[in-house]
């Protein structure tokens, strides 16, 4: 009898919770997308190869392709809007865009402003750019060697403490990369997504990103915060799950010339269909 009463109590509480969530979900943005037949997605316009302008001025890149798949799955048209790190959350918060897929690291403070939903679709971490001729293949190869970095980057101290590198910090990335070209250091340590973008630019053909990235910081796409746990948020969670399970994101990395990441390989393995051949 006690078990039955407890079960009924839990069921009642769960029912009340579901009902409360349902009452809070106006699904305003979701409904607006359906009514107008178009989804407006904010992507980067200056971060090749994730989001940038092609020769004809159109926004293209890996995240632009992801946005297109979202629109196709919804059966609506796609409108892309170029955003920057400084305004991407404000554009979503203010209703200028419906969805944001714009190389944004998933952090607690950002979750208080926009509706980040999981599983995270991508991640960046710490890595190095180094001349191919040096043949660096282990982090330990940096021990006692000068490594260019950017002033204020949190991983400078980590790489010094963990691997014994001698960080030579510069005020900006341009100066650090020029010092690398001038052989004032054997490598440049920075965020691997930025390094991958540089390598994809065609301006660093004699360089490589030879190591396994460390200290991953997952990226989050976002819906309006009010719809994080509603239809739109649940839908985008499903999109990300399917991207990982299908390997679509791995294919997009290859399409856009992005060096394969261990993160996507792990997520593909984690979400794979255990009954699939």
Describe this protein's structure.
- By secondary structure, this protein is an alpha/beta fold.
- It folds into two domains: 26-121 and 220-270, D-Maltodextrin-Binding Protein, domain 2; 124-216, D-Maltodextrin-Binding Protein, domain 2 (3-Layer(aba) Sandwich), CATH 3.40.190.10.
- 42% of the residues lie in helices and 22% in strands.
- It is built from eleven helices and 14 strands.
- It has helices at 2-24, 28-36, 62-74, 88-93, 108-111, 155-163, 173-181, 192-200, 231-246, 248-255, 262-270; strands spanning 38-44, 46-47, 51-53, 59-60, 77-83, 99-100, 115-116, 122-131, 146-150, 166-170, 187-191, 207-208, 214-219, 222-223.
- Strands 8, 9, 10, 11, 12 and 13 form a six-stranded mixed sheet that branches.
- A hairpin with a 3-residue loop joins strand 2 (46-47) and strand 3.
- Helix 9 crosses helix 11.
- The longest helix has 23 residues, at 2-24.
- It starts with a helix and ends in a 7-residue tail after the last helix.
- Residues 1-20 have low confidence and may be disordered.
């Amino acid at each position: 009898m006690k078990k039955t009463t407890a079960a009924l109590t839990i069921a009642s509480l769960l029912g009340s919770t579901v009902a409360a969530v349902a009452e809070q979900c106006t699904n305003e943005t979701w409904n607006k997308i359906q009514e107008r037949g178009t989804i407006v997605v904010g992507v980067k316009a200056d971060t090749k190869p994730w989001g940038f302008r092609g020769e004809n001025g159109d926004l293209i890149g890996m995240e632009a392709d992801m946005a297109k798949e979202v629109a196709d799955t919804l059966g609506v048209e796609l409108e892309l809007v170029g955003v920057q790190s400084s305004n991407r959350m404000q554009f979503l918060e203010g209703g200028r865009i419906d969805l944001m897929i714009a190389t944004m690291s998933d952090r607690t403070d950002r979750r208080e402003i926009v509706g980040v939903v999981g599983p995270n679709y991508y991640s960046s971490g710490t890595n190095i750019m180094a001349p191919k001729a040096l043949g660096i293949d282990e982090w330990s190869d940096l021990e006692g060697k000068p490594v260019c970095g950017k002033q204020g980057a949190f991983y400078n101290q980590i790489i010094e403490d963990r691997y014994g590198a001698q960080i030579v910090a510069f005020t900006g990335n341009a100066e650090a990369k020029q010092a690398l070209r001038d052989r004032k250091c054997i490598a440049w340590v920075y965020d691997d997504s930025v390094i991958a973008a540089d390598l994809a630019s065609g301006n660093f053909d004699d360089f490589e990103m030879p190591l396994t990235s460390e200290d991953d910081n997952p990226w989050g796409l976002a819906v309006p915060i009010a719809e994080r746990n509603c239809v739109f948020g649940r839908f985008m969670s499903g999109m990300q799950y399917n991207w990982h399970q299908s390997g679509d994101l791995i294919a997009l990395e290859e399409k856009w010339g992005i060096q394969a990441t261990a993160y996507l390989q792990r997520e593909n393995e984690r979400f794979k269909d255990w009954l699939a051949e």
